[in-house]
Here is the input.
Amino acid sequence: MNLLNKFMNMDRRWIYLITAICVIIPFLIPIGLPTYTTPPARNIYEKIDNTSDGQVVLLSFDYDAAVLPELYPMTITILNHCFNRNIKVILMSLYMQGIGIAQVALEDVKREFPEKKEGIDYTLLPYVPGGALVILGIGEDIHKTFPTDYYGTLIDSLPMMREIRNFDQISLAISFSGGGVSRTWVTYANQRYGANVAAGVTAVMAAENYPYLQTKQLIGMLGGLKGAAEYENLVEKNLKLKTRKAACIGMDAQSAVHIMMIVFIVLANIAYFAGRRRKK
Amino acid sequence: MRRAGPLKLCLIGGIVMIIQFFIPHRFSKNFFDEVVHWLIVCGVPALVIGYYSIFHVHWTKIRRKREGWGYSIIIFVAVIVVALIGFIWGVGENSVFMKIYQYMTMTMQATMFSLLGFYMASAAFRSFKARTPEATLLLIVALVVMFGRVPIGESVFIKLKLPNLVEWILMYPNMAAQRGIGLGVGLGIMATSLKIMLGIERGWLGGAGK
Amino acid sequence: MSHDPWVWVAAFLTLCIFSFLYKDNPFYRFAEHLLIGATLGYALPLVWKNIVTPKIIVPLQHHEYWLLIPLCLGLLYIARLIPKYAWLSRWPMAFALGTGSGIAIPLSLQAGIFKQMQGTMLTKAMLSPSITPTVHIIGNIVMFVGVITTLIYFYFSIKHTGTVGKVARIGVWYIMLAFGATFGYTVMARVSLLIGRFQFLLHDWLGVIK
Amino acid sequence: MYIKFKEVQHIKIIYLFFFAFPLFAQESDTLPLTQKFAPPLDVRAFDTPNDAGKSITVQWNLSPDNSLFSGYEIYRSEAQDTGYQYVGYMGRGISTIRDNRGVKDNTPYYYKVRGRTSTYEYSEFSPPSSSTSSSPQWYHKGKTNVLIGLPLFIFLIFWAVFQAKMGKPLFIRKIDGLDSLEEAVGRATEMGKPVLYVPGTSFISDIATIASMNILSQVAKKTAEYNTPIIVPNRDPIVMSVAQEVVREAAIEKGRPDYYNPDRVFFLTSSQFAYAAGVCGIMTREKPATNLFIGMFWAESLLLAETGNITGAIQIAGTDAVTQLPFFVTACDYTIMGEELYAASAYLSKNPSLVGGIKGQDYNKLVIFIFLALGTIFGLLGNNFIINLFK
Here is the structure.
C-alpha cells in the first residue's frame, strides 16, 4: 500500500524520464510493432503500384518545418516507391519552405537510386506564389505556370515534361500538408479537372478529410506517422525493399508513449481507489 | 471628448462594417480591403510602444542591478544583433538571418512546443482520476481514444468489430459538445461586440464611467 | 557526429530548453532570454520588408496619400508614452475595435450560429435505415441531443435544478466526453513533436542513429 | 515512349469500335474526325449572382459521350458567329464554370463549349449561348437570413437590457470559476505574493481578449484594494496598452494611483512559444500565488497551466477555445468555459444593463431551441424548408 502511495505522489520528473525513454528506445532498438493497414493507405499504394512504367505522379510538399517530423517519412517512402516502380515524379510545393524540403527529400532518396536523372525521371518545380491559382494553372497548362524548373532549365527542354500538359497526363497528385491544403487540391484539381488526388496529412487533420474519402474525391489518404508506417510496411512486404523505416520507428515511439500513459493512468486510478478504501 | 469621440468612431466603424457584409459590389469589396489595409498600417506604430515597454522593463533591471540583470543584457544583444543582420545582409533564403531563424529561433520554439509531449503525460497522470462520474467519463474516453490511435489498439478494436469507434466518438458526441459550446460562444461574441459598439461595454477605455 | 557549427548551436539550445524539465536553471534562463530577444529582433526586418515597405512606403511613393490617415491614427498609440496625452491612443483603438466588432457580428451569426444550427437539425434522410447506416443514425440522434443539452448548460438565467438541472447535467457529460476525446486525440500530435526533437538530437547532431 | 504510343493506338481502336456503326449508318465516310463525338448541348450563360461583377456563370448539358472525354473547353466571344477565344477547361462530368477571365461588365458575351479527349481529339462546338453580360450586385440575396436574424437578435438583447434597467430583478446561475476569482486573489494577498494575469495570446480584435480585459478590470480593482502586485505579460502591444489603461483606472478608482506600475503590465514578444517560454520563466522565478489565464489560447495553454501547477499556484483559466479547454480543465483548479467568459463582466460587476445583456443572450438561445425543434420536426416529415433557411 505504501508503494502505491509513493507511486501516486511520484515526482513528475520520473514521468518525464520514462516518456523520454519510451521515445528514445525505439530509435536505438526498432521494435517493429505490427500495423494494421487502413483502406485509404492501401488505396494510394495500389494506385501507384498499378501505374504503368513511365507514367507520372505529382507530389506537392505543402508543408513547412513545423510539421516535418510527422510528414517527412511518408513523403520519403512514397518517393521511394515511385522510383522503385520506375514512375516519373514531379515535385512541387505551394509553400515557399516546401521546395527546400522537397529538395532534401530528393537527395535522401537519390542515394539509393543514383541512376535517376533530373528532367528524365523526375522534375523539381520552383515555388510559384498563388496557392489555388497554381493548381488551376496546372489544370490549364503546366508549361505556362512553370516556364522553368527549380534549377532554371526551360521546362520545354526537359524530356519527361514534353508530353505533360496538364492533369490528363498525371496519373495521381498527392498533396502533403499540415493544414487544409489537401482540401484546396480536392476543390480545384479533382472537382474542376477530374484529376486523381490523394492526401498525406498530419494525424490531427485526418478526421476532417474522411468526407472526401467517402465521396471518392480523395483516392486515398495517409494520416500522420501511422499512415506513413502503414505505407512503409506495404512497400516492404510487396517489394521486398529494405530501407530505414522512419515512420515505423516513430510509430513504435508513439505506441510506447501511448501505452505508457494508459498504464500510468490506470495504475494511478487503482492507487487512488485503494487509498480511498483504506481511508474508509 | 476624451471618451465620447472614440466611442462615436467605434459605433460608426461597426455599423459601416455590418452594412458592408451584405453588399457584394466591387465598391464594397474594395472598401473592405482598404479597411483591412488601414488596420494593418494602424497597428505598425503600436510596435513602438511594445518594444519601448520591454526595453524599459529590462533597462530598469540592468540599471538597478536587480537579480538576473545579466540576462536582460542578453535580450538587448539578441534584438540588436538579429535585427542588424537582417537589415544589413537581407532576409532571403540561405542568408545568415534565415540560419539564425532556422537553427536558433525555430529550434527553441519547436523544443518549447515539444515540452507538451512531457506535460501531457504528467498532467494526465496527475488529474485523470475517477473522482466523479464526469471525471470518469473524461478519463475513459481519453483512454479509449488514445488506445484506438495506435496500431495495437486499432487491431484490438477491429477484433471487437468496433473499427470506427474512435471516429464515431469524434464525429458525433464530441462534435455535439463542440457545437453546443460554439453556439454559446457565437452568441457571446455577438452580444459583446454589440455592447462594445454601443458603448455599454467600455472596459477597453480603461475602467467604467466618466 | 555533425560537423556543422549551426547544428551544434541548435543542439545546445535544444538541451538548454529541455533542462527546464528538471528545474529552472541558468541554461534555461539564458535560452529563454535569447529566444525572446531573437524573436523581437527577428520581427523587425520582417515587419519592415513585409508590411512597412509594401503597405506604407510603396503606396506613398505612388501618391496614395490617404494612407497618412491610418498612419497618423496609428502614431497616436505612441501618445501613451506621454501621460498627459495618453487618452489619444483611444482613437486608433476605437477604430480597431469598432470595425472588428462590426465584422464579427454578422460573421458570427452566419458561421457560428446559422451554419451550426443547419448541421444539427435532423432530416428524414438522416434517420432512414435504407439510406443511412445504423451507426450514423444513432450518431445523428446523439448529436442532436448533445447540442441541445450542452446549450442548456450555458443557459444562465434559470436555476439549474429539477428537470433543467438534469438536462444541463447531460450537457456536462457531453462536454467532459468531448474534452476526453480532444485530449486523447492530441497526444499523438504532441508526441510527434517530441520524436522530431529526439530525431534531431540523435540523428542530425550525434549521428547515433541512421 | 513505345508504351505511350501503344496506349494511344489502343484508345483509338476503342473509339473506332464504338463509333464505326453510327458513321456507316449515316452512309458517309468523309465526315471530319470531330463528329465522332457528340458535342455538349444547351449552353446557358447568366450573370453570376451575388458577386462583385466581372463574372459570368456558364452551364451546359453533358455530351452523351461524356465518358469518352477528359473534359470540356469553354470559349467566349463578343460576337455570336466569330472571334471565340478559349477561357477555361473543366473536367469530365462537370457542367458549370464561373468565367472571370477578363470579363468586362455590361458587355454582351456568347459562349460555346466542346469536349476534349485525353489525346486532344475534339467534339464539335455546341451551339452558342444567348448573349449575357455581367454586372455587380448591391445586395447579397444569400445573406437575407442574416439580415432578418440580426435585428431579431439585437431586439432581444435590447429588450432584456431595457427590462433590466426598469428594475426587473434578473437571476444568473452560479459560475464557479468566476466566484473563485476573489478567493484566488485573496490567497495571493495572504501569502504576500503577486497575481499573474495572462490576457490570452490573441489580438484586441479577438472578442475573447476584450472579455479578458473586462475581467482584468475587476481583478485589478481587487488587487489594488489589497495592494497585491499584479503581473500582466502581453503578446500584443495594443492589448498591452489596453491592459495598462485598465489596471491604471482600477488603481485610481480604488484610490491608489501609485499602485499602477507600467513595468508590471508589459509587452514580452509576439512569438507564440517565445512568449510561453517567458511566462514560464516568470512563473518559476516570481512564484505568483495565483495564475489567471483568461482570453484566447492555442497550443501554449498546457505549457502555461502545467508550469503553473508545478509552482503550486492556484490557477483559474477562462477561454472560448474549445480545443484548449481540455488542457486547462486538467491542469487548473477552475475553468471558465466558452460563453461563461462572455458572461463574466456582467456576473462580476452586477451592472444591470450588462446583466440584461446576458438575459438577452438567453432569449436568443430560446429562439435557437425553437428553430432546432421546428426544423427537426419538419425535417423528419420530409420537408427541409426550415433547414434551408439557415444555409
Residues 2-27+259-279 of chain A form one domain. Chain A has two domains: 2-27+259-279, 33-244. The mean pLDDT of chain A is 90. The two ends of chain A are 14 Å apart (CA to CA).
